[in-house]
Amino acid sequence: MKTFEDIKNKVLSKFNTWIKINDNKSKWTIEDFPYETGVDEIVTNPHCWKCVTVNQCWFKNEEGKKPKEFDYSDYSLIEVPLSKRGLYHLNCHCKKNQMSAPQKEKKYFDNLPGKINFFFKDKINWFYSWGYKDEDKESFVNTVLALTYESYSLGFYETIDHNKQGFKINVFINLPGKHEKKEHIYKVKTCWMIFPNGKLKCNTLIGGRTK
Description:
about 25% strand; 3-stranded antiparallel beta sheet; single chain
């Protein structure tokens, strides 16, 4: 039987703009596994990859920006009683807990050095085309990171994929040009994975232009 607290959190989550997914019965999060293999369900059993990859993670409470919930509309209460209707699958332990939006001033990132080096090696032409010069590299990265977390905290992102490697998103930013391009604003996307407690793990520093 669902407790009053379960029912209250379910109702509040519909009105709150952000949620944190929490599985009190699992110690595992996506941070416990390398990207190359993703979640190892032999290790996490009986906890599935879908739940482990979002455990302790923060999401805007909107479709397309949070993990897809299981649809019980084709099942009667006799076939699947409320006590078995978990968030992502039957008997799922995950809960949606209401929370305030992330604080854009407090930025948490992972996996940055290699991705930054890759950008300046393989996409340096983009950097120059936006008016930046070699001496601007550090300030450019700081600007991208600040704008990324601000956009994430405002919910300006989209889900790209959710698999055993993690919950992948594109974050949309308005990147200002520099020097002779300072009057220009470039709409670009940065590619990340949502990690526990507000952290974003970098997949691609700049993934391309957007409309």
